[in-house]
Amino acid sequence: MDTLNNWRERLISKTTRPTLITTYKYWLWFGFLLVITGNGVFQYWKQWQHGLYVTDMRDRISWGLYITAFVFFIGISHAGTLISAILRATKAGWRAPVTRIAEFITAVALLIGASFVVIDMGRPERIFNVYLFGRWQSPIMWDVMAITTYLTASVIYLSAPMIPDLALYRDRLADKVGVVRNFIYRTLSVNWKGSPKQQKLLGKAITIMMLVIIPIAVSVHTVVSWIFSMTLRAGWNTSIFGVLFVAGAIFSGVATLIIIMAILRRIYHWEEYLTEKHFLYLGYLLAAFGAFMVYVNLSEYLTEGFNLEEAGLFAFRQLFLEDFAAMFWFYIIGGLLGPVVLMLVPKTRTIAGVVTAAILVVVAMFLERYFIVVTGLRVPLMPYEAANYAPTFVEWSIFAAGLAIFCLLITIALKIFPMLAIWEMTEEHAADISDRPTEEPNMVGADIVGSLTSTERLPDAGPPAEGGGS
Amino acid sequence: MTDKSGEAKRSQTPKGEVPISIGSVDRRGAIKLLGLGALGAVPLVASARVMDGLVRDIVKGSVAENQAADTVPTREAGRIRQWTMVIDLAKCDGCQSQGTPPQCTTACIEGHFAPQPMEWIEVYEAELNGGGSQFIPTPCQQCENPPCVKVCPVGATFPTPEGTVLIDQDRCIGCRICMAACPYDRRFFNWGTPPIPPEAALSDYNPDHQAPASSGTVMKCDFCPEMARDGTLPYCIQACPNDAVWYGDLEEDIATNGRTVVKATKLVSDNNGYRLKEHLGTMPRVFYLPGHGEDIGRDPHDEGRMPTEWPWIERAEGAVTWTR
């Protein structure tokens, strides 16, 4: 029978695999991302020179793909919060292998999302005016405050639970990796020795961050929605926008997490840790949020449509029947109902089914962000012909670069950081087997204590998730 | 120093008199002078601005302060003018009778060097309920409860004590949330490097006249506060061949279209004046008197107007233009 120590050693070797082994495929993928990024940088340089003239945005549709990307990426960043903070708070035991990946997605997506606001600015070099002259009455300032807070909190929430794992890397990989990574491990593991005092402090820190980050995350996508809903435009000026955006954010965040989990699982053979159970649970979450999104949409469109105003009529026509109908119905049927159906039918209640649902959701949520931004601006305010908008090559290139940098940062992180939460997973596994009436019930504790050196002792102080199990 | 420049301007108008009445004396002359492709005259206007700007620049701190403290035209101590505009739609035919593009828009473009395709005062053609159309010249509505000001993250667009809303293009970061917020489609963005004719390039920048335009920032109708202080009517009012547009001061309750001077509130009430999208609560300072050009004999079924032109665009080197 597998002892806990063996289990843990195997986990460590599997987790360090991406850090220690780099194949040519990795460099191929890396190069591919670099090319896309390079093209985006080049196109942005063009935009820097000629102004937003190089986009297809104009006075009447004055926001487009960049703001879509901003909302989309900030939405994806909600993966980390939900999975990690909410599941940690509710002591859902199965979350352990998923949290680290989710937290990385959060930090990276936030960085990309925030950059798109700057990319969208007419005078990006004046970004510091926001700090010099900032008015707290402006929804944009709310976003600046919320997003910077969220980014700070997310980085802390990512790095704090990683400390014991980084200390492990520091001790185990010292002679296997170069100077840079050694430096990173030494610095970020903040002299972790696994002493009871340190464990206690870490447990406290994680608990506090977990509780703090949930309201912050909810506030972030709420104020993102308020950028739109604080205007006097049909389709935007509605109190449901905050709910719609937060639910949509978590929805797309979970979907992105599923996709990235599936990819990593396949490449690094993490089948033992990212099991079908994890995918199914996340899939159920997806289905639940899909159903909730249907409800929110129905509530919104019925309220607005029942006593249809002129501007509302225009907004509805373009959405349901005309220019944006294909997008809209794909969003409703494929993106919202799709996951529900896929999870309801036993045949598709598989990893493949969940991943399919996740891909549908990510695409649909991107389209939703796009049509929310563009259709809201497109409704004519005065007697003029409605304008049209089609993103230019420059805009698509920069958006693609955003996606590429998102992947790139995760790809780089794979080479440095433990993508699986080793200590939390071990803890959970220990709890798991101690729950079971195993052959040697009393040996478990001894196993842990006895076989680990002092620096690698399991930090069992984490208040979350103890005794979670099944 | 600051006070002197303000004093100098005020002294051009005899104390207690309506400054705009000066413009009305020689209105046609003013049109010729300012106008409509009279090349020689334009630099004059511009150079007056340059001097103005120079004086102000030496003394100015922040623009908003400058606005608030130095240049507010007071009739008497403690009284601040509250600019307003009344547009008589019964007298507007979109310049169909002139066979020209709307003269208000043209004059505005000439005077402000508004980059193509910006029509700070745009003449919309709206359908009438019984068929046919009306023309609605639409400047910035200068809301008392301005949605654009509320959303600006850096205070680049700000209300003045005179009740107008201006934009400081030196501060604007180009986020365009004000454009999303404006319910009247009255804000314009410099998507590219804006066309700047030589005479505008000379002008010293000031939010009061917004010239020269700068890339990546928002512009809009400014209600010509400088001209008003100097005792002249805004370009659009000077140019209107049918005296359809009135400019006035709600504080003194007076308005003029360049020909007659009337009580502003009475003008609005007597003619069933209304404001655009009143239900939004933006409280515009622009009032409309209903109509479709019937006072000057326009048939509502005679639709369409000449497209707006930017005649000076050819003098702007390397000009980039776009469409709205």
Would you mind describing this structure in some detail?
The complex is a heterodimer of chains A (470) and B (324). Chain A is mostly helical. Chain A has a domain at 231-389. Chain A has 18 helices and no strands. The longest helix of chain A is centred in the middle third of the chain and has 34 residues, at 196-229. Chain A is globular. By secondary structure, chain B is an alpha+beta fold. Chain B has helices at residues 2-11, 20-25, 27-34, 41-59, 63-70, 103-112, 147-151, 177-181, 198-202, 225-229, 235-239, 264-270, and strands spanning 83-88, 122-127, 133-138, 157-159, 165-167, 188-189, 218-219, 245-249, 254-256, 261-262, 286-289. In chain B, a hairpin with a 4-residue loop joins strand 9 and strand 10 (261-262). The N and C termini of chain B lie far apart (42 Å). Mean pLDDT of chain B is 82; it is low at 1-70. Chains A and B meet through helix 6 and helix 7 of A and strand 2, helix 7, helix 8 and strand 6 of B.
Which structural category do the helix and sheet elements of chain A fall into? mainly alpha
What composes the largest sheet of chain A?
Answer: none
Instruction: Give the SSE string of chain B.
Output: HHHHHEHEEHEEHEHEHHEEEHE
String of helices and strands of chain A: HHHHHHHHHHHHHHHHHH
User: In percent terms, what proportion of residues of chain B is strand?
Assistant: 5-15%
Output the radius of gyration of chain B.
Answer: 19 Å
Q: Give helix % range of chain B.
A: 25-40%
> Which topology of chain B does CATH recognise?
Alpha-Beta Plaits
The biggest chain-chain interface is: A-B, 45 and 46 residues
Oligomer: heterodimer
If you average the pLDDT of chain B, what whole number results? 82
Strand residues, percent of chain A: under 5%
The largest sheet of chain B, given as strand count, sense and whether it forms a barrel, is:
5 strands, mixed
Topology:
The complex is a heterodimer of chains A (470) and B (324).
Chain A: H1 4-20, H2 24-50, H3 65-76, H4 78-89, H5 96-120, H6 129-132, H7 139-159, H8 163-172, H9 179-188, H10 196-229, H11 241-268, H12 276-306, H13 310-321, H14 325-344, H15 351-378, H16 393-416, H17 422-435, H18 443-451
Helix pairs in contact in A: 1-17, 2-16, 3-5, 3-11, 3-15, 4-5, 4-10, 4-11, 5-7, 5-11, 5-16, 7-10, 8-9, 10-11, 11-12, 11-15, 12-14, 12-15, 13-14, 14-15
Chain B: H1 2-11, H2 20-25, H3 27-34, H4 41-59, H5 63-70, E1 83-88, H6 103-112, E2 122-127, E3 133-138, H7 147-151, E4 157-159, E5 165-167, H8 177-181, E6 188-189, H9 198-202, E7 218-219, H10 225-229, H11 235-239, E8 245-249, E9 254-256, E10 261-262, H12 264-270, E11 286-289
Parallel strand pairs in B: 1-11
Antiparallel strand pairs in B: 1-8, 2-3, 4-5, 6-7, 8-9, 9-10
